[in-house]
Amino acid sequence: MNAESFVKVRVTRRYPASPEQVFDAWLDPAMIGKWMFGPALREEEVVRISLDPRVGGSFSFVVRRQGQEIDHVGEYLEIDRPRRLAFTWGVADEEGSSRVIIDIVPLENGCELTLTHQLHPDWADYADRTEAAWTKMLDVLAPTLALQ
């Protein structure tokens, strides 16, 4: 399947932090547990966050929601600190994965992050929900970075 057939969700945010700080927030398990998952976003408990941040390395973010464990998994496809991070994104025990690309551009007073999530056409009905989830996560990232 070619890249044009994927449904793309895009969210852009500006942060008063260095590109390195923003990039590193994607690869630091403690940070991920504060802005990507956990009670700051929704009613859930972070069970385990593990990652091997290298091209070909994998990650597993396990959370408990409503008594059920959900394991978000993926593989790092590209790591170009502090400019670009690309990885697959899926849920363990469910078919199919998607691709997430993070592009970070330095600005005079911080940086701009653009997240592009490429969803398989079968998941097109989830595009709005996916955009809302990433929007909320990236909004929570700002105060999390400020506490560093």
Automatic annotation (TrEMBL):
SUPFAM superfamilies linked: Bet v1-like
Species in which this protein is naturally found: Bacillus thermozeamaize
Top-level taxonomic group: Bacteria
Ranges that cross the membrane: none
Family under the similarity heading: Belongs to the AHA1 family.
Domain Activator of Hsp90 ATPase homologue 1/2-like C-terminal: 17-145
Chain coiled-coil ranges: none
Protein name as it appears in the record: ATPase
